[in-house]
Design goal:
Layout: H1 10-46, H2 49-54, H3 57-71, E1 80-81, E2 84-85, H4 87-106, H5 115-132
Antiparallel strand pairs: 1-2
Helix pairs in contact: 4-5
């Protein structure tokens, strides 16, 4: 769980941007995705008993708690709209949380395994629709500054 946490990659992404820019971060992401696939195949073939012995709950629990506490400092930035705090941004954040909880509890099949991704996509779609109708939630001008290799 803590290896796939986004908090595990913050320092690597910041370092990659500083050393080689966005191409370095993209290449690093591809490499780590391949490593994840290899580890996933290894676990699928050999089972999880060895992993449960290597990383018991007494080890995983505190590590996850520390990661969560470290990421809590970023929480206020999740409620910003174009860099400024707003009640609308807070509402969208709460809506994301409620949708994720509902998917996790009521979801069926494969979708139930992806509550965060699905809820973010749904709320991003709502944000895009609101932006088209004049509520500035998505700064589309930022896409003009993106430089693709």
């Amino acid at each position: 769980m803590f290896i796939s946490s986004s908090g595990a990659f913050v320092a690597a992404v910041i370092g990659g941007i500083g050393l080689g820019g966005y191409p370095a971060v993209a290449i690093g992401g591809i490499i780590i995705a391949l490593i994840y696939c290899g580890v996933g195949l290894l676990i699928k073939r050999s089972g999880t008993t060895w992993l449960d012995k290597l990383l018991p709950a007494a080890v995983i629990g505190p590590v996850v708690a520390v990661i969560g506490l470290n990421l809590a400092t970023y929480l206020p930035t999740y409620f910003q709209v174009n860099g400024q705090y707003s009640l609308l941004g807070f509402g969208m954040g709460v809506l994301t949380m409620v949708i994720a909880a509902c998917i996790s509890h009521y979801g069926k099949g494969f979708i139930r395994n992806l509550p965060f991704l699905v809820s973010m996509l749904i709320v991003y779609g709502i944000s895009c629709i609101l932006t088209v109708f004049g509520v500035p939630l998505v700064n589309f001008a930022a896409f003009n500054d993106m430089h693709i290799i």
